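Internal tracking record. Fields below are filled automatically when a chain is submitted to the structure queue. Please do not edit lines marked as system-generated. If the sequence contains nonstandard residues, flag them in the REMARKS field before resubmitting.
Queue: standard
Priority: normal
Entity type: single polypeptide chain
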Amino acid sequence: MTEAQQSPGRRAVIGLAAILPAAAWLPDLSAALAGIMTDEESTMTDHVRTLQALTLAGAERLADLALRAAAEAGAQICVAVTDPSGHLLAFRRMDGAGIVSIDVAIGKARTAAMFRKPVDAFEEMINSGHPSMLAVPGAVMLAGGLPVGTPVVGAIGISGSTGPGDLAIARAALAAFEAEI
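SYSTEM-GENERATED OUTPUT FOLLOWS
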């Protein structure tokens, strides 16, 4: 098997095994490490998964598209874009956007990422007399948060307009972004 055909994990194990024989206190470690991964089975694939996520450039592009959609709608908004785990990647605040919209936009994006669903579904559930979702720590159950991609690679949150306005801006930005990729 050539080096190019080996997985990065196998190359790392073999590279580590090549330098460890010099350690007199671990004479058999190189042999043990060399046997961790074989061609027939890879223990790494059974215990580790690879997740896709927005890049910083992708998150910034999505935020910029949201600013454009907001300007077209005549709204002053904050936009937050997170990775799939809900951690902030990009943030923009338009001139005139309310201070409270900063945390709300971030919370909407985080909530959409955590649940992997549009946040407006939870707002509708709460408004129809099922308030249990209000007890979820850190969740912002207001329209304007959407997951990005299938599988989810991130999320966008918009705040500063009305609930339906925030949702429309998020949808417009997401549609423009998906048309580009």
